[in-house]
Amino acid sequence: MTVRPVSPKALDGEEKLEQSLRPATFGEYVGQEKIVENVKVYAQAARRRGEALDHVLLSGPPGLGKTSMAHILARELGVALHVTSGPALVKKGDLAGLLTALAPRDILFIDEIHRLAPAVEEALYPAMEDFRFDVVLGAGIGAQTMEMKLERFTLIGATTRTGLLAAPLRDRFPIQERLDYYAAAELEEIARRAAAKLALPTEAAGLGNLAARARGTPRIAIRLLQRARDFAEVEGDGTLTREIVDRTLTRLGVDEKGLDAMDRRILAAILDTFGGGPVGIDAVAAAVGEEGGTIEDVYEPFLVREGYLARTPRGRTALPAAYAHLGRSRPRGGQGELL
Ligand SMILES: Nc1ncnc2c1ncn2[C@@H]1O[C@H](COP(=O)(O)OP(=O)(O)O)[C@@H](O)[C@H]1O
Ligand SMILES: [Mg+2]
What we know:
Layout: H1 15-21, H2 33-49, E1 56-59, H3 66-77, E2 81-85, H4 92-100, E3 107-111, H5 118-130, E4 132-137, E5 144-149, E6 154-159, H6 167-170, E7 175-178, H7 184-197, H8 204-212, H9 218-235, H10 242-252, H11 261-273, H12 281-288, H13 292-305, E8 309-312, E9 315-318, H14 320-326, H15 335-338
Parallel strand pairs: 1-6, 1-7, 2-3, 3-6
Antiparallel strand pairs: 4-5, 8-9
Helix pairs in contact: 4-5, 7-8, 7-9, 8-10, 9-10, 11-12
Bound molecules: adenosine-5'-diphosphate (ADP) and magnesium ion.
């Protein structure tokens, strides 16, 4: 698999560095003000009452700070954070092991909670609601259910796809917050702080250049910063300047709007091969040599959000911004004109 510099998901081996750059307190957590203000109040109230925080569901695209927020909440509450993920909980027993290990008020963090196996999800309901876990002993007619009492704990679920969450699960989270993409100024601040932690000298124009191309996503801003740091140290004088960022992103194939080669290939195919659309996702997939599902999940969200592409019932249609960005003139009276 090729490494995609603007992937919002963590690449292999990135976990460790991310942890060292992760904001440790709400004071270091940039942006998402409304959410931060709310959860701070909930955490403070729970702490004063000596109770576990209510269960929290954090949703939003990858790389926007869901895991970071869970870590900060644990720290704020002075409790331990136990981390797992939907796909890691294969059997009911995997969940039982985690739940019974929780101390009072601890946080269980389940990443990608939309990917829980049905049996595990079902076992989670009584745990969330009544802090109990039902164990079935034996099988068939002689089977008996034994109730295990759990400590009162907080479940923090994170998901990139709220739509895939079953309503009974979603409804069991009294606190639900949706994280949104970051403004360029916020990404600039995140990059500035990360650079300081890395002891990397920066120029404001360099940080601004980088933030504008990070697709609204802190994880991408931090990754681009690391690559720019390499270029600054090897090919520059060690400072992150506008020119160094330009050079880095050119080498990575990321253009001034944050699009990479595949993003541009998708737009070019729709414009040049399919007359601007509407065209079905499978036809686009065949034209660019990428899987339809991957295009939908990984590439399209950014292109749609930035107004290059529209998803219509009849297929994908290129919008005026796509023509402008790729330097194509729009056909008179064509789809691009109508939309
Ligand atoms: N609000 C923020 N302020 C500062 N850094 C952030 C923020 N959100 C995310 N980051 C940075 O981006 C990286 C990815 O964030 P993470 O919490 O792992 O995202 P998610 O869990 O939503 O995929 C973190 O390591 C952190 O350094
Ligand atoms: Mg995460």
